[in-house]
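#data-curation
PF: Archiving a pair of folding outputs for the training set. Convention for this channel: one message per protein, sequence first, structure tokens after, nothing in between. First:
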Amino acid sequence: MMEIVTANVTHEMITPLMSVGLLAEKLTHEKERNQIDQDAKLISSTTSILLSEVKLLLDKSHLSAGRF
């Protein structure tokens, strides 16, 4: 059971991680201030999604181990 949860959450984490990396790289090349602000907001929201997934994984692992 835990392997399935880990595989699912890991898969869900890959997309936001890749997005954060690509957006951060894009920001290093941006010239337009408005676009930089939009990208920074997108990085922030993507990071929040990723943190939620990590917290979910931790909660599920604690439940599985009977430590919650």
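PF: Second:
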Amino acid sequence: MALRRSVLGVLLAASVGLFGASPAAADYGRENWQIGFAGTGVAAGSGQSFGFWGWCAFGGGVTSGDTGDCNFAQYFQSTSGGSFTCHEDLDITSWNTAGGSFHITGTALVTPTGTTAPCLAFFPGSSTFTNVDSGIPAAAGHYNFGGLGPGLRGEFQIQVTQLK
């Protein structure tokens, strides 16, 4: 039994070494930027909470490009009803770093489709969008924005990585 555990431990350690996630080992095609983000919040005294988490990849250049993809999930819960959970897939056809953040153009697909209106109301506003400021900083680094605004308890963090 001890031998079986030690062999399993060696195999596990070897697989972590072989398959560990790193930008250099991954095949991201033409992507130049990779972003991860997450946030949660509770509106004080309202019985409402929300959250989101996801990632984006932008390619075709360093300050602008013609390819990108974002995928994220979000939820909204209210003790008075109107709750939803959804997923958005953004197909980015162009982007730029004007004003120090990523501005995006493309189309959004929401699942389940019955949550399209409330999901898109949060971001980006409609199923087709042009030059929308994503709020994602256009410089590599980890950003901890702390709270999300007045009257909200929660957190908001973004990790921006330049791949090439």
